[in-house]
TrEMBL record:
<feature type="binding site">
    <location>
        <begin position="33"/>
        <end position="38"/>
    </location>
    <ligand>
        <name>ATP</name>
    </ligand>
</feature>
<dbReference type="InterPro" id="IPR014729">
    <property type="entry name" value="Rossmann-like_a/b/a_fold"/>
</dbReference>
<feature type="domain" description="tRNA(Ile)-lysidine synthase substrate-binding">
    <location>
        <begin position="273"/>
        <end position="339"/>
    </location>
</feature>
<dbReference type="GO" id="GO:0005524">
    <property type="term" value="F:ATP binding"/>
</dbReference>
<keyword id="KW-0963">Cytoplasm</keyword>
<keyword id="KW-0547">Nucleotide-binding</keyword>
<dbReference type="InterPro" id="IPR012094">
    <property type="entry name" value="tRNA_Ile_lys_synt"/>
</dbReference>
<dbReference type="InterPro" id="IPR015262">
    <property type="entry name" value="tRNA_Ile_lys_synt_subst-bd"/>
</dbReference>
<dbReference type="InterPro" id="IPR011063">
    <property type="entry name" value="TilS/TtcA_N"/>
</dbReference>
<keyword id="KW-0436">Ligase</keyword>
<dbReference type="GO" id="GO:0006400">
    <property type="term" value="P:tRNA modification"/>
</dbReference>
<feature type="domain" description="tRNA(Ile)-lysidine/2-thiocytidine synthase N-terminal">
    <location>
        <begin position="28"/>
        <end position="197"/>
    </location>
</feature>
<keyword id="KW-0819">tRNA processing</keyword>
<dbReference type="GO" id="GO:0005737">
    <property type="term" value="C:cytoplasm"/>
</dbReference>
<dbReference type="Pfam" id="PF09179">
    <property type="entry name" value="TilS"/>
</dbReference>
<protein>
    <recommendedName>
        <fullName>tRNA(Ile)-lysidine synthase</fullName>
        <ecNumber>6.3.4.19</ecNumber>
    </recommendedName>
</protein>
<comment type="similarity">
    <text>Belongs to the tRNA(Ile)-lysidine synthase family.</text>
</comment>
Amino acid sequence: MAGPAPVVAAARTAVTRALDDVPAGSLVLVACSGGADSLALGAATAFVAARGSRGSRALRAGAVVVDHGLQPGSAEVAAAAADACRALGLDPVEVVRVDAGGPGGPEGAARDARYAALAAAAERLGAAAVLLGHTLDDQAEGVLLGLARGSGARSLAGMATRRGLLRRPFLGLRRTDTEAVCAAHGLTPWHDPTNAPAPGDRAAPVRSRVRGEALPVLEDVLGPGVAVALARTAALLREDADALDALAAELLADAARDTPGGEPHHPGAGVVLDVATLARALPAVRRRALRQAAARAGSPPGSLTRAHVLAVDALVTAWHGQGPADLPGPVVASRACGRLRLHPRTHEGE
């Protein structure tokens, strides 16, 4: 008997590897939009769960369909995606409607609402993992956007294969692969019209224009393989960024422990750090530690810019009596008596 098509086997292998540490009998959830990537993921996950990721090691597999309500007919699209998941054998299957009108622009608000809904569903259903259908092409697009925005290594490192409950089995597969998987299973994916805007449509999402216009131009000018190279760059930078983040966390712990006097700090003091310990560190490590400290004090990481971090860094390395540095949150960073303190601003002038 002939085995599955190579691309189907590759998808199943990717899911098996992504679930290699999930205990037998656990529930895993597929985040499904009805598009080719998530439907292919649903098909592969249903197969792996039924047979177990290692022989008889069976799992339970369900799906969550998030309806962002951003397009006419979104409820019907979500219902069709849920029906497709059930037909694949996924159970339970839930449709969750979210409000995507939060801060951060339409794309950012939709992403935040989606991840919040997935986290809530995982907690409610007791899932051990949530699988996302991002592909190598998605990774490449994100890296290219980061380069254009002048982002640092952490942003250019792209999406992690694992982060908490979230797992992305298909980061090594192409979008054409997931389309082929759907064809092999007789699945009809939904095609999001915003993913294929008309050339030159400036109202279209930026990522969609990168996908439809920028990357094809780069492939034409630089030759095939640009997307693969961008994804490889992300993998390399992720290793470096992880190492630097670990060093920064160690520095942050040392600077907190070495604060002058060593006495405990009163509740509400925020993050208090020894300036001398910070000043001895390499700039790349120190600035990452300061970013971590600001986030720990309550500053939203997505709102912290390099200018904010450099302003706090100046309190350590270029101290000449300047006043506090204002950070998003709002959080305040100030220096006094050999200490750097970062805390939420509670009163005017504090």
